[in-house]
Amino acid sequence: MLQHDTLLRAAARAIYDACYPGDEWAPLGFEDAERYATVHYRQAVGAAIEARAVLAAPVQPDLFGMTTPERFVGGQPKTIGMPGAL
């Protein structure tokens, strides 16, 4: 559980509530999903961990666009911006 990391828990709760807004999406609320470690809860925690990594990674602008963190494209930098830019 995430009681020791309150910011990560808050992010997981926000993601859980946004992705699973009602009973038709997930049968349990966040507290119960956390208690039973449901797949919905684990997915929200995973998304919160990924979001924290993305938000903490430095984004360095380049001449043609923004370069995303390298780990998201098989270890190769990915440039967002002009197609075909080198």
Characterization of the model:
The structure is a single chain. With 86 residues, this protein is mainly α. The protein has one domain. Helix content is 45%, strand content 9%. The protein has helices at residues 6-19, 30-36, 39-56; strands at residues 60-61, 65-67, 79-81. It has a three-stranded antiparallel sheet, with no helix packed on it. A hairpin with a 3-residue loop joins strand 1 (60-61) and strand 2. The longest helix is centred in the middle third of the chain and has 18 residues, at 39-56. The chain is elongated. It starts with 5 loop residues before the first helix and ends in a 5-residue tail after the last strand. The model has no long low-confidence stretch (mean pLDDT 79).
How many domain modules?
1
Write out the strand line-up for the largest beta sheet, numbering strands in chain order.
1-2-3
* Estimated helix fraction: 40-55%
Number of strands: 3
Distance between the termini: 44 Å
Radius of gyration: 17 Å
Q: Enumerate the spans where pLDDT stays under 50 for 5 or more consecutive residues.
A: none
Structural class: mainly alpha
Largest sheet: 3 strands, antiparallel
Q: What proportion strand?
A: 5-15%
Count of helical regions: 3
Mean pLDDT: 79
Question: What is the N-to-C order of secondary-structure elements (H for helix, E for strand)?
Answer: HHHEEE
**Global geometry:** elongated
